[in-house]
Automatic annotation (TrEMBL):
PANTHER family: DEHYDROGENASE/REDUCTASE SDR FAMILY MEMBER 7B, SHORT-CHAIN DEHYDROGENASE-RELATED. Transmembrane segments: none annotated. Belongs to the short-chain dehydrogenases/reductases (SDR) family. GO terms for molecular function: oxidoreductase activity. This is Short-chain dehydrogenase. It holds the Pfam family adh_short. GO terms for cellular component: membrane. Keywords: Oxidoreductase.
Length: 263
C-alpha cells in the first residue's frame, strides 16, 4: 500500500540513520535524506528507491547551525510536508577535556544541540498546525552517564534527552509524539570520527550493538508513540544499575571503560 508521508532523516548516509531510512522505505515512506556528503546520499538514494518510494537528497553541514535553518527553508520551497523528523546526526570527540580542541567541541555542540533544536522547532511548528506528526531524537545511554574522555558528547546527549522529555510533556494533549532513542556503543563510524580507536571500549568489538537492531528498536518505539527506548538488554541493565549508583562512582566506572587501552 502506498504511503504519501515523508520522513526527513539527518545523518542518513550511514550507521543508525541509514538503517532507519531502510525501515521507513520498507513501510513506503517517502524520504528526505540529509548529510554532508552528496555522493554518499546519492548512493543511498539509489538503493532506497528500489522500495518504490520517492527519495530526495539534501546535502547540508549541520555543524553550521545556519545550514539547519537553510535545510528547513529548502524543504518548504519544495512544498514538502514532513510527517516524521529524525534527528540522527551527531558526533563526539575523544580525549581529556583539558587537552581537546575547544573549536571542535563547539562545533559538536552546534551539531548535537543547536541544529537539533532548530530543526525540532521549525518542523514541530508545522506539525502543531496540522496536529499530527512524529519526531525521533537520537539521544544515547550517554545521556544518563557522566563520560570521562567524552565529556562534551555525554553532556550534549543529556541535553537531548531532557529537551525531548520536556517537549513531550508540552505536547501531551496533541496528536504529536516525540521519542528519544538511547543506544549504547554501536558498530558505526562514530568511533573513527571521534578519534576513539585506542579506547578500551573498542577492545572487544563483538560487544558493540548492531546499528540495524538499534534502528529497529527506535523505529518501533517511534511508531508506538513511546517517550523513549533504551536499545539492548545490556544497556537497559547498565542504566538500571546507574540509577542506584552515586554519580561519582558511575563517572569512575565510565572512565575505566573509555580510557585509552595503554592507561
Amino acid at each position: 500500500m502506498e504511503n504519501n508521508k515523508y520522513a526527513l532523516i539527518t545523518g542518513a548516509s550511514s550507521g543508525i540513520g541509514y538503517e532507519l531510512a531502510k525501515l521507513f522505505a520498507a513501510d513506503k515512506y517517502n524520504l528526505v535524506l540529509v548529510s554532508r556528503n552528496q555522493q554518499e546520499l546519492d548512493n543511498r538514494a539509489a538503493e532506497l528507491r528500489q522500495h518504490g518510494v520517492e527519495v530526495i537528497t539534501i546535502a547540508k553541514d549541520l555543524f553550521n547551525r545556519q545550514e539547519a535553518f537553510d535545510l528547513y527553508d529548502e524543504v518548504k520551497r519544495r512544498g514538502l510536508h514532513i510527517d516524521v523528523l529524525v534527528n540522527d546526526a551527531g558526533q563526539g570527540l575523544y580525549g581529556e577535556f583539558k587537552d581537546t580542541d575547544i573549536n571542535r567541541e563547539l562545533s559538536i555542540i552546534d551539531l548535537n544541540i543547536a541544529s537539533l533544536v532548530i530543526l525540532t522547532k521549525q518542523f514541530l511548528q508545522d506539525m502543531v498546525a496540522r496536529n499530527e506528526g512524529k519526531i525521533l531524537q537520537l539521544a544515547s545511554v550517554a545521556s544518563k552517564l557522566p563520560g570521562p574522555w567524552q565529556s562534551v558528547y555525554h553532556g550534549t546527549k543529556a541535553f537531548v534527552l531532557s529537551f525531548t522529555e520536556a517537549i513531550r510533556e508540552e505536547l501531551k494533549d496533541t496528536n504529536i509524539t516525540i521519542t528519544a532513542l538511547m543506544p549504547g556503543a554501536t558498530d558505526t563510524g562514530f568511533f573513527d570520527k571521534a578519534g576513539m580507536q585506542n579506547s578500551k571500549i573498542l577492545e572487544d568489538k563483538s560487544s558493540l550493538s548492531n546499528p540495524a537492531d538499534v534502528a529497529k528498536d527506535g523505529y518501533e518505539a517511534l511508531q508506538d508513540g513511546k517517550d523513549k527506548v533504551i536499545s539492548g538488554l545490556k544497556n537497559k541493565v547498565q542504566i538500571a544499575m546507574t540509577n542506584l549508583t552515586p554519580d561519582s562512582t558511575v563517572a569512575h566506572l565510565m572512565n575505566e571503560q573509555q580510557k585509552p587501552s595503554d592507561k
